[in-house]
Amino acid sequence: MRVGAVVIRIIRQLLRDKRSIALLIFAPLLVITLVWLVLDGDPYEPKIAAENIPAPLEQVLQNELEKDVVQMSESEAKEAFQKEDLDAFITIKNHVPYVLLEGSDPTANSAVMKVIQTAFSSLSDQKNIQPDVEYYYGSDKINLFDQTGSVLIGFFVFFFVFVLGGISFLRERTQGTLEKLLSTPIKRWEIVTGYLLGFGLFTIIQSFVIVTYCVYVLDIWMAGDFWQLLVVTFLLAITALALATLLSAFANNELQIMQFIPIVIIPQAFFSGIFNLETLAEWLQVLSKFMPLTYGADAIQEIMIKGKDLVDLWQDLLILFGFALLFYVLNIFALKKHRRL
Description:
Layout: H1 2-16, H2 18-39, E1 48-51, H3 55-64, E2 70-71, H4 74-82, E3 88-93, E4 96-101, H5 106-121, E5 132-135, H6 144-174, H7 177-182, H8 188-217, H9 226-248, H10 254-259, H11 261-270, H12 282-288, H13 292-306, H14 314-334
Parallel strand pairs: 1-2, 1-3, 4-5
Antiparallel strand pairs: 3-4
Helix pairs in contact: 2-11, 3-5, 6-8, 6-9, 6-11, 6-13, 8-9, 8-14, 9-13, 9-14, 13-14
């Protein structure tokens, strides 16, 4: 009887929490659908340019690709690499095929090499020839973790800051600290600014530890400047903190904070650069533009893999700052439900 009473109490408690019931049913469906959309995308079609290659080889490459093989010089190809408009360049040097890979995207690299190997194997006079392959960004020594680790840094910084920041701000409410502050003449924007700066100090420390460990202990590939990588991760962490404090205003307990993870965090992981977005449906590519992690992870990857500077990444940084500012302003309005000034 006593066990049955406990069971009935738990069932009634869950039934009163409509958000938990909805999450229990729909969150797994959402995540599985995202996995399906990402992994069921079209095969990646590489963009290849060439100069002075034999006509039979060019014809075979043309047959293997849906896109045309663009004719351009090596210098033009390098400019296209910098604009992310090209995946590979092929020419003949010293009577040997020479392949220059853009190198930053493992999906594109494997797609290019598959096309090239198929092309050479179909030509009887080229079967035993091994092309000379070089990388414009990175090198052949970069492993899978080097390629995806830069994206994972951004994801883990965003994830842990979101969880810790959201729970910490919620405790400020449930323990009555925020209520006491709201009873004073302090302005809402002052409260939000104070909380973001206070919690932000610890998120900055956390970001520093994660980045330092990945770069200097795990020895992940690092082509850019360490301090510039820190700037991007700090901005990403502040954005995650501002989002966490905003959503925590609509949660009544820590469980409800955790419920935001499959809705807010997991979708961003799929569109942060771990998978090539060009293989996805166009509406999914548009959807990724509304996710802060898309820009933070892209900036981190550009610094670590390509060695770019903050000046080159001003668009990503500006959009990321815009997200942080938007969440900051929404935080101020969210406090209206607790006090009207």
